Amino acid sequence: MIKAVIFDIDGVLIDSFEANLLYFQDLMPRAGYNAPTRKEYIPLFSKSLLDVIKILTRSQSEEEVKRIWDLGASREIPYNVGLVTMPKRSDVTIKKLSEKYLLGIVTSRIRGYAFEVPKLADLRDYFKVSVTYEDTAKHKPDPEPLLLAAEKLGVKPDEIVYVGDAASDVKAAKAAGMKMVAFPKELEGADAFTDSFEKLPELISAL
């Protein structure tokens, strides 16, 4: 029996691709590197700030990577939340799900920016726990963040559904012993898929 639903943020609760792309296109030149093209950034979208920096710089220097991470984490480079959108009627869906399940968040975002999008911040109280990048030593596709969320919720992993948009989300959910719903695109290994956020309650209740 499903008792809790955990969501990824980027790509699920919010469509932040354009905002994230623009952010890195501003950050990397400021740090002395080439801006990523749209094509180069597509496979990086689901990765953490730190991992994107490591890939784009190809630097082996922890000090150099940290310098750019600090610049990025400081938001000295503005992040255009105006480019971020949310799924249609996501607020209604979240409220509906919260009436039946405990809700949580597991994201690769750093803690200070998990809820920086105003419309998502308005829904913050519906999520009982949020696990961000700083909360664990290991990150998706490792199951550690999801297992921490389960522990905080007080729910067994096999009683949880994780909603994600990347292959790393599938791997993390399966390793944690959770069900996995892919949104908004199909992913190999997911237990279910939908491209309509509004259909999540019906889909989850059938798992």
Compact overview of the structure:
By secondary structure, this protein is α/β, with parallel strands linked by helices. 38% of the residues lie in helices and 11% in strands.
SSE blueprint and pairings:
Blueprint: E1 4-7, H1 17-30, H2 38-41, H3 49-57, H4 62-73, H5 90-98, E2 102-106, H6 118-121, E3 129-131, H7 144-153, E4 160-164, H8 167-176, E5 179-182, E6 192-193, H9 200-205
Parallel strand pairs: 1-2, 1-4, 2-3, 4-5, 5-6
Helix pairs in contact: 3-4
Defining key terms:
Rossmann fold, 9 helices, 207 residues, 38% helix, alpha/beta, globular, six-stranded parallel beta sheet
What does the model show?
This protein has 207 residues and is an alpha/beta fold. It has two domains: 4-15 and 84-205, HAD superfamily/HAD-like (Rossmann fold, 3-Layer(aba) Sandwich); 17-81. 38% of the residues lie in helices and 11% in strands. It is built from nine helices and six strands. The chain has helices at residues 17-30, 38-41, 49-57, 62-73, 90-98, 118-121, 144-153, 167-176, 200-205; strands at residues 4-7, 102-106, 129-131, 160-164, 179-182, 192-193. Strands 3-2-1-4-5-6 form a six-stranded parallel beta sheet, with helices on both faces. The relative contact order is 0.17. The model has no long low-confidence stretch (mean pLDDT 96).
